[in-house]
């Protein structure tokens, strides 16, 4: 028959080995009481901001779409999952990355193309309102023409491979067990720089990042009273790297490589201090 000190020691050992898992903090209404929203700046974003000043006039550039071409769905072993494995709005990270190049001396003038329909409709509304109330002959408040881009950034998320490597280990001794598991996935993005006047693909770069997942847990199983009463305890914790963070840093790294390759091909250059 197991004694109380033995049971307590088993529980303490399990907590030390596997980590005591607990639910997230909930407020009085039963909702998750997490941290407030914040702006996250990645290391790759800081690298883009530290790029030296451009040695020529700012470059007008447009981003139309940066689609998910993987077709991957979130993995689920219990039921069919319709949610996609990666974000469907990576254009936002591409625009943020391009706007960050050069920091306070930005390299690129990024033009609005994602909401182009809304922009054109609003301009039409302004134009028709002015014609109605100010008359067609009024030329004082004529809308300026939209800027056109000299370069277009295209590409997308071209790869999302799951279970690149996976494994684990476990052990059990007198009813006390512990196990650890890990898995790595991989995401790949590709970027093309296209000249608007000729349609020529000036640059093509790609970047790949590994996404790591890790879990550990343990359990205790003991018979307490001549095989008629049993004690069973399980605990565990899992850590998954956010997929959105991985995609964002991969896109930013690809933009950094695009800047580097563009210098090598003479598309742009750093400003020379006199």
Kindly describe this structure.
This protein is α/β, with parallel strands linked by helices. The protein is built from 5 helices and 6 strands. The protein has a 6-stranded mixed sheet, with helices on both faces. A hairpin with a 6-residue loop joins strand 5 and strand 6. It is elongated. The chain starts with a helix and ends in a 10-residue tail after the last helix. 18% of the residues are buried. About 2% of the residues have low confidence.
How would you concisely characterize the structure shown here?
Helix content is 27%, strand content 31%.
Q: What order do the helices and strands follow?
A: HHEHEHEEEEH
How far is it from the N-terminal to the C-terminal residue, by CA?
Answer: 86 Å
| Class computed from helices, strands and strand pairing | alpha/beta
The total of helices stands at 5
Q: Report the portion of residues in β strands.
A: 25-35%
Q: Low-confidence parts, pLDDT < 50 over ≥5 residues?
A: 17-21
Q: What is the mean pLDDT?
A: 78
Q: How are the strands of the biggest sheet laid out side by side? A: 2-1-3-4-5-6
Mass-distribution shape: elongated
The overall strand count is 6
Biggest β-sheet strands, sense, barrel: 6 strands, mixed
Q: Kindly state the percentage of residues in helix.
A: 25-40%
């Amino acid at each position: 028959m197991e004694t109380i000190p033995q049971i307590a020691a088993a529980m303490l050992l399990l907590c030390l080995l596997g980590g005591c898992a607990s639910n997230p903090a909930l407020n009085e209404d039963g909702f998750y009481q997490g941290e407030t929203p914040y702006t996250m700046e990645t290391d790759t974003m800081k690298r883009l901001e530290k790029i030296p000043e451009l040695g020529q006039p700012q470059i007008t550039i447009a981003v139309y779409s940066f689609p998910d071409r993987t077709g991957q769905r979130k993995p689920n072993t219990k039921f069919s999952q319709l949610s996609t494995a990666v974000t469907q709005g990576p254009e936002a990270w591409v625009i943020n990355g391009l706007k960050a190049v050069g920091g306070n001396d930005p390299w690129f003038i990024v033009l609005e193309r994602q909401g182009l329909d809304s922009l054109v409709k609003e301009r039409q509304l302004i134009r028709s309102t002015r014609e109605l109330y100010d008359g067609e002959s009024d030329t004082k408040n004529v809308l300026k023409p939209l800027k056109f881009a000299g370069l277009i950034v295209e590409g997308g998320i071209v790869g999302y491979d799951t279970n690149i490597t996976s494994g684990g280990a476990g052990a059990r001794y007198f009813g006390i067990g512990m196990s650890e598991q890990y898995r790595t996935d991989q995401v790949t993005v590709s970027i093309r720089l296209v000249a608007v006047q000729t349609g020529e693909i000036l640059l093509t770069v790609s970047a790949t990042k590994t996404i790591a997942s890790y879990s550990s847990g343990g359990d205790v199983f003991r018979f307490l009273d001549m095989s008629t009463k049993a004690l069973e305890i399980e605990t565990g914790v899992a850590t998954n790297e956010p997929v959105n963070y991985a995609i964002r840093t991969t896109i930013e790294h690809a933009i950094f490589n695009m800047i580097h390759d563009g210098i090598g091909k003479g598309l742009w250059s750093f400003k020379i201090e006199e």
